[in-house]
Design goal:
This protein has about 775 residues and is of the alpha/beta class. The protein has 27 helices and 34 strands. It holds the Pfam family Trehalose_PPase.
Length: about 775
């Protein structure tokens, strides 16, 4: 059986290349679980596309390197012409600092050739080079998995080339809050490109939430529980915490060589408690904060002086860059000061190593460590924490973990979480860890060990690929088919053949005048029924074979105002939360325990923005609040809507169970589950209860509306294949039937018409241009009735 192919695309290949001759190369495999996991996906034949880590300018060298890498399942991307401004410039000088909350660096002042724009141009060109290589090697059915901020434009290039290509994108760093991300000059282009992927993955829920919020605030698009919806295209956003290869660390820790190292280190440390730090020498790792906290601990705990030591392994990165030399000098200065204050002839409190160490030695250190101290100021995950947990053996140590490391959400239950900026808090945690009882250490260790053992790197890769496969094979999560223009003749012909008809009509944009003709009154819209429909709808309602339902987000008073004098019509206000037949009273269909405490807070925010956005207004109903800016300046209105969303999420709805719906010129907040599709079950049950003598199933449904995306579930509710099943209806305690039998509805592909007004990205099967077309259609239906 031929395995499907996976094309992994990242900045770097999993091998380090070194030229040893004109046409010969040697390679060193990069260590780490990520490489093993991606190359070890058993159900895929994996090819890795990336930069080989060296500049190759001659054609002979490029050809020889490509041939040699092919034997290792790797494909090189040559970036010589743009590498400096792409990698050192846009990736590491602009994106990396913003993603780690360090802010946007100033423009280069000493070189007019290096600007934001020149670096972004290099970034775009590099992503095009990556695309060209993927396109050259892509085969139909391949899955493309893009990794990290280096290739954020690649998903869009791939989808433009082949819209059916299966594309995933995963970010290995933090994704910043929208307030930080919005400082990026190319913020919108990068977001829109990433959203063309089928699946977007992050390490933690915080990072995923920040990404979704950025899409809402900057692009002004709709978020759902699954991800982001942009012009009908659903991009799933999900969380996949990466792990390590636990068995590698566990087995290494059991080697006799490692046991020898453990004995040697214990002897060298002369009985002192060991606090260990293992970090890249990087501005985000918080090494200076770690030293300051340790200094504070020694100041306040004289009894521990000479009995505890801090060993910091600071692996060098990006040598030669000014900022990294500064952090190195700062660390050395702190170490000298602290050792000078608290050291003695026989020992010093801090040993700082500017180097990496042998893997077996590292595992030995992990195994004998009393406290692992992680003080990252911002970290995508920080797998050092997991490595420490995997190597712990007889006497368990304690993990002190920064709450700003992604691992804090995974290992926090078995760690002491700290704010690394709070020196006193970290100092106190050091004391707590050193004095912790063996029982408590064992308890915390077991919590984290079970997590580390079951959440391996391999599991991470499997989870992502399974989710991507699920999404791309599930048609319901893909963009809907472009609907056909409604043939009104077919609608009328089927109407004439039927014996029990159900017409479900939206109100605003469906039965009202087109938007351009709407009059405004005061702070809102004059939502009045189209004058040419008043008498014609009454004719349809008087037909015993026809049931008419007006299903709207409008409040009860609005529907009463327009339809209160009709006979035989059903009114469903606030998306079916309130229902009445025009011959009776309103019935509440709201769930008993629905919490609406958030409404007052939302109204305050909407009022604030209404006062500051000329031409806007907001309307409140019992279960929702809508802010509309369609008569405001378009650009200013969109900007205000983006700011409003941030105010809402930070304040009144931060802990509320609500849905936020972003329309083309509106923002709506409503209770979760308040959609037209969920209301149809209740409406059908009420209709059956009212027409107890109904012995003919509904054999014709016409559903027309200008609905928001979340309300389009009403179109799929009546799909013929669904009506074959028995539908459940909640028991409201008011005598309504618990079941609506499939005998109530008898539809097929010819007698069900779902129609969207004015849009072609929809779940509906058909579309009409405007409410004027609805007027024509209802006129034809009435004419048939009178014939």
């Amino acid at each position: 059986m031929v395995r499907p192919r996976l094309l992994v695309v990242s900045m770097s290949l999993p091998v380090t290349a070194k030229r040893v001759g004109e046409e010969s190369w040697s390679f060193t495999m990069s260590p780490g679980g990520l490489v093993s996991a991606l190359l070890g996906l058993k159900e895929f034949e994996t090819k890795w596309i990336g930069w080989p880590g060296v500049d190759v300018h001659d054609a002979v060298g490029k050809k020889a390197l490509s041939i040699a890498l092919a034997e290792k399942g790797c494909i090189p991307v040559f970036l010589e012409e743009v590498c400096d401004q792409y990698y050192n410039g846009y990736c590491n000088n602009i994106l990396w600092p913003i993603f780690h909350y360090l802010g946007t660096p100033p423009e280069y002042r000493n070189d007019s050739a290096i600007t934001y724009q020149s670096q972004y141009d290099a970034y775009k060109k590099a992503n095009r080079i990556f695309f060209d290589v993927v396109k050259e090697h892509y085969q139909e059915g391949d899955v493309v998995w893009c990794h990290d901020y280096h290739v954020m434009l690649l998903p869009q290039y791939l989808k433009e080339y082949n819209s059916k290509m299966k594309v995933g994108w995963f970010l290995h760093t933090p994704f910043p809050s929208s307030e930080m991300y919005k400082t990026l000059p190319s913020r919108s282009e990068l977001l829109r490109s990433v959203l063309t992927a089928d699946l977007v993955g992050f390490h933690t829920y915080d990072f995923a939430r920040h990404f979704v919020n950025a899409c809402m605030c900057i692009l002004g698009i709709e978020a759902t529980s699954e991800g982001v919806v942009d012009q009908g295209k659903v991009t799933q956003v999900a969380v996949f915490p990466i792990g390590i290869e636990p068995e590698r660390f566990i087995k290494t820790s059991e080697l006799s060589e490692v046991s020898q190292y453990m004995k040697m280190f214990k002897n060298d440390f002369a009985g002192r408690k060991l606090i260990l730090g293992v970090d890249r020498l990087d501005t985000i790792k918080g090494i200076p904060q770690k030293y300051q906290a340790f200094e504070k601990f020694l100041e306040e705990n004289e009894e521990w002086r000479g009995k505890v030591m801090l060993l910091q392994i600071a692996v060098p990165t990006r040598n030669g860059i000014g900022e990294y030399q500064k952090i190195k000098d700062q660390c050395h200065g702190l170490v000298g000061r602290i050792n000078g204050r608290f050291g003695s002839i026989s020992s010093v409190p801090i040993i700082h190593l500017d180097c990496s160490i042998d893997f077996n030695q590292l595992c030995a250190l992990y195994a004998i460590t009393d406290v692992l101290l992680v003080t990252s100021l911002r970290d995508g995950m920080n797998l050092v924490s997991s490595e420490f947990v995997a190597c712990q053996n007889a006497e368990k140590g304690v993990l002190i973990l920064s709450e700003f490391a992604g691992a804090g959400q995974s290992l926090g239950a078995g760690a002491l979480l700290v704010n690394p900026w709070n020196i006193k808090e970290v100092s106190t945690a050091i004391g707590e860890a050193l004095n912790m009882s063996p029982e408590e250490k064992e308890r915390k260790h077991q919590i984290n060990f079970q997590y580390v053992k079951t959440h391996s790197t391999q599991q991470w890769a499997d989870d992502f690929m399974n989710k991507l496969n699920e999404i791309t094979t599930n048609g319901e999560l893909r963009t809907g088919e472009i609907p056909n223009e409604l043939r009104q003749h077919d609608v009328v012909q089927q109407f004439s053949k039927s014996k029990n008809r159900l017409l479900i009509l939206g109100f605003y944009g469906t039965l009202t005048m087109p938007d351009t003709n709407q009059d405004r009154r005061g702070d809102g819209m004059n939502l009045e029924l189209h004058p040419q429909l008043k008498e014609r709808l009454k004719v349809l309602c008087s037909d015993p074979k026809t049931t008419v339902v007006v299903l709207s987000r409008s409040e009860k008073s609005r529907l009463d105002q327009n339809f209160g004098d009709y006979n035989g019509m059903w009114l469903a206000a606030e998306n079916g939360m309130f229902l009445r037949h025009t011959s009776g009273e309103w019935v509440t269909k709201m769930p008993e325990h629905m919490n609406l405490d958030w409404i007052d807070g939302v109204k305050h925010v909407f009022k604030y923005f209404t006062e500051r956005t000329p031409g806007s207004y907001f309307e409140t109903s019992e279960t929702s609040v809508v802010w509309n800016y369609q008569h405001a300046d378009a650009e200013f209105g969109r900007a205000q809507a983006r700011d409003m969303l941030q105010h809402l999420w930070a304040g009144p709805i931060s802990n509320a169970t609500v849905d936020v719906v972003r329309g083309s010129h509106s923002v709506e907040v409503h209770a979760v589950g308040v959609t037209k599709g969920t209301a149809m079950e209740r409406i059908l049950g009420e209709i059956v209860l009212h027409n107890k003598s109904m012995n003919t199933p509904i054999d014709y449904v016409l559903c027309i509306g200008s609905f928001l995306g979340k309300d389009e579930d009403v179109y799929t509710f009546f799909e013929p294949e669904l009506t074959k099943k028995t539908r459940s209806s909640p028991d409201t305690g008011n005598g309504f039937p618990k079941k609506v039998s499939s005998r109530v509805v008898d539809l097929n592909g010819e007698n069900y018409f779902s129609v969207a007004i004015g849009k072609t990205h929809t779940k509906a099967s058909y579309f009409l241009d405007s409410s004027d077309d609805v007027v024509q259609l209802i006129h034809k239906l009435c004419s048939h009735n009178n014939a």
